[in-house]
Amino acid sequence: MKKKPLIMCVVGARPNFMKIAPIMAQLRRPDSGLAAFLVHTGQHYDAEMKHQFFDQLGIPEPDVDLGVGSGSHAQQTAEIMRRFEPVLDEHHPAAILVVGDVNSTIACALVASKKGIKVLHVEAGLRSYDRAMPEEVNRVLTDQISDYLFTTERSAQENLAREGIPADAIHFVGNVMIDTLRTNLTRAIPAAKTLGKDADRVLGGAVGFAIVTLHRPSNVDNPEVLGTLLTSLRRVSDSIPLVFPVHPRTASRITAGGFDGLLNTPRIVRTAPLGYLELLGLMQQARIVLTDSGGIQEETTALGVPCITMRENTERPITVTDGTNTIVGINTQKIEVAVADVLQSGGKTGRIPEYWDGRAAERIVAILEREFSSHL
Fold first, then answer.
1. What is the Cα–Cα distance from 150 to 181, expressed in whole angstroms?
2. 62, 184, 222, 248: which has the fewest Cβ within 10 Å?
3. What is the C-alpha separation between 161 and 159, in angstroms, rounded?
4. Of 40, 44, 121, 215, which is the active-site residue?
5. pLDDT tens, 16-63?
6. Which residues pair with 271 in a beta bridge?
7. Is 215 one of the catalytic residues?
8. Residue 320: pLDDT band with limits 50, 70, 90
9. What is the pTM of this model?
10. How far, in Å, CA of 7 to CA of 20, rounded?
11. Residue pair 207/239 in contact by the 8 Å Cβ criterion
């Protein structure tokens, strides 16, 4: 009996983990016509993160951990490429599967493409049209060298068509992030447990609470921008208490900029970075989420929670047109008006986008089985 064709899946950073979990589960079904192999580049890795994502989401131990670690974009991308090539040479996959838009995505796709190995890109075609974002460059380049492009929304198909991608390479399958969310809704950790001693003052008020996440370099690396956003959030906290899980990069920038005092109020609860189930539990109960995260824009739309995005653009326009998302940029007045609107009128309710039904990974693997199992 011939071996099953091997699909080599790549993860590297926190945004990847929620996307790979349902795909790995489908590939490793007992009746799957494919074999799965998981490579973790180590772009983001520490023991606590392993518990917060791998253990909570049931992601199997990586078959290979490249252990790349941090560095500049060029250093990190080059080192991933250097360490990934021998893995391809040893295991001879039928294809590699990459997700999202981090440095690991483009680095591994580029190595595979140059070696004549098929590239499968999950979450293809999303565009912010802001080339100042490193993720936008990664997205565009990965799509250009991918053989199978799996999209989360129909606008992504239109973007790819404009960029010359053949229609038969594009597959509209839905959103694997929402597969993970729907699978874990009943397992989400209640906000009271996550907040501990701070639960009463956050959960006890009549207006509820808001969640804040900030991590994009454009928001946290420029002291003037960061100071403006934190000043606005301090004012917002007068109307609704804030829970702020602080990304390590953001925490260092807050301290370096001398902004810790802006957050020293009982109306703002700072926490360490949270695991997936902890943050999901908070989002389920939140009145508002203020963020610069792409994934959280999608998750809040799926949950029906108003989202205020502190960016000038989004690569996920369906969260605005169909969902609960409002783009306000870094304009202090727009942020505060958007929060006031939610508190007064309830904010956008939105609807669940097409194919955000928890079955995207099933669709992806069904396509891969049809395309690659036939090689047996």
1. 19
2. 248
3. 5
4. 215
5. 999 999 999 999 999 999 999 999 998 766 666 666 788 899 998 899
6. 245
7. yes
8. very high
9. 0.94
10. 12
11. yes
